[in-house]
Amino acid sequence: VLAAYAIDAALGSMAQEIHIVTGHENDRLASTLGNRPVNFVHNENYRMGIGSSIHCVINTLPPDIDGVILCLADMPWVRSDHLNALISQFTGNTVCALYFERQRGHPILFPKSWFSRLMTLQGDCGAQSLLRETTETVTMIPALDDAVLRDIDHLEDFPRN
C-alpha cells in the first residue's frame, strides 16, 4: 500500500502524533495498516478533493498542538529525515517548507496560526496554493535530494522492493 511509505517515514520521525486521512478505501487501509500506532481519520467527503482531507485532519487535532505537517501519500521517497528537518527548524510561528533546486516541495509544516487558512481550502486546491498567495515569511529548508518533489502519478512509477 502506497500510504505505508508515508506512515513509516512519519513513525521514524520526531513527530508526536500521526493522523492518517483515508477516503474511499478506508476499511482496506485501516485493516492493512492498522497495526501501526497512528490515528485513522475517515474523510467521508473525500470526493470533494484534498481540501476536504485537510479540513478533516485539522478538525481532529488536539487544541494544544503547535503545528501540523501535511504529508502526501503519493510521495513514497519522502523519508524521516525530511520530516525531522522541518520539525528541527520549526519555531511555532512560521511555515516550514522543504525545497530542492529552488522548487518548493512536500511535506510542509504549518503553525497553528495557519489552521484557519487551511480550513478555507476547497476542492483539489492544496496547501501550496496558500503559500503562493502569502506575503508572510516561509522558512525554506534545503533538501538533499528530489524526494520532496517526486510523486506517483502512474502505477509504473511505484517503487518495487
TrEMBL record:
One Pfam entry name: NTP_transf_3
Gene3D superfamilies: Spore Coat Polysaccharide Biosynthesis Protein SpsA, Chain A
MobA-like NTP transferase domain residues: 2-134
Signal peptide: none
SUPFAM superfamilies the UniProt entry points to: Nucleotide-diphospho-sugar transferases
UniProt GO MF annotations: nucleotidyltransferase activity
Entries under InterPro entries matching the protein: MobA-like_NTP_Trfase, Nucleotide-diphossugar_trans
Protein name: MobA-like NTP transferase domain-containing protein
